Amino acid sequence: MFVSRMLSNITQYISEAVMQIFAPVDDAYPNSGVQPFTGEIYKSRTADTW
Fold first, then answer.
1. What is the rounded CA–CA span in Å between residue 40 and residue 13?
2. Backbone angles phi, psi at 47, to 5 degrees
3. If exposure means fewest CB atoms within 10 Å of the residue's CB, which of 2, 12, 22, 50 is most exposed?
4. Helices (H), strands (E): how many in the chain?
């Protein structure tokens, strides 16, 4: 009884790990990549001096 229960637990543990590795990606990260520039171009002559 003990051996069969232990074998069942080991099999379940390994099969859950395999399912998690090969499951489709379900991350909810936002799409990222190159973002368009929406600021002003830096001009060194007009920079504020301290």
1. 56
2. -70, 145
3. 50
4. 1, 0
Q: Copy the structure tokens of residue 12.
A: 């379940």
Tokens of 20: 């998690």
Residue type, 28: A
Q: Give, in degrees to the nearest 5, the angle at Cα 32 between 28 and 34.
A: 175
Distance CA 1, CA 5 (A): 6
- Considering only the C-alpha atoms of the chain, give the largest distance between any 2 of them, rounded to a whole number of Å: 83
The dihedral built from the CA positions of residue 50, 44, 38 and 36, taken in this order, carries a sign that is negative
Express each pLDDT in 1-50 by its tens digit: 899 999 999 999 999 999 999 988 777 777 777 777 777 777 666 556 65
The token pair at 6 is 């232990």
